[in-house]
Specification:
188 residues, globular, mainly alpha, 65% helix
């Protein structure tokens, strides 16, 4: 880990409101995996964002916008996030979103296949489309027209846009986690 965890009592005046907002959002929207240390320090991508509030604050605002009342089914979102995390070999992202995907009903076999960078053959249609969109986007280049049309037909224009933005956000999350070598929390 390249950045020390920041305990609440060590926060600067600039970091305090961001910390409070992040902590409230984490407790509301990011349950099931380790996000807050025993000492109150924020784990995962939140710690690097807290170190640089001028950049981390806007990223957090986008994260909140993408997390609060999404139009896409949660299982579809998790498939797209896991495809992105697998592409970047982002350990914390995979750790956190495997847990979240398990809570959304995805099987261990499905999750293992996605984390290995492969498309499960038995995905429901909406999850398969999410897989294809995310895979194409992280692979680089323009999203193929047929894949885009399938996303619009399945999720509507707004849902397809949400899916594209979600993949972009988690590319940034993966890059943050990898750039600052954020580890998976130790098991208790």
């Amino acid at each position: 880990m390249r950045l020390p965890l920041i305990k609440p009592e060590e926060l600067s005046d600039e970091q305090k409101p961001l910390y409070a907002d992040m902590r409230a959002g984490i407790e509301k929207n990011f349950k099931g995996f380790a996000t807050i240390g025993a000492d109150g320090a924020l784990l995962g991508p939140w710690n690097p964002w807290l170190h640089e509030p001028k950049m981390g604050g806007p990223v957090w605002e986008l994260t909140k916008a993408m997390s609060e009342a999404p139009s896409l089914p949660r299982s579809v979102r998790e498939v797209a996030i896991l495809v992105t995390g697998a592409h970047f070999h982002s350990a914390y992202e995979l750790y956190a979103h495997v847990i979240a995907a398990e809570h959304r009903g995805l099987s261990d076999d499905t999750l293992a296949t996605i984390v290995a960078g492969q498309r499960p053959g038995d995905l429901p249609r909406d999850q398969a489309i999410a897989y294809d969109v995310a895979s194409a986007l992280v692979g680089g280049g323009v999203l193929p027209e047929l894949t885009y049309r399938q996303a619009v037909a399945t999720f509507g224009q707004h849902g397809a846009a949400e899916l594209i933005y979600l993949v972009g956000l988690y590319c940034m999350v993966s890059t943050t986690l990898n750039g600052f070598d954020v580890p998976v929390p130790e098991a208790d």
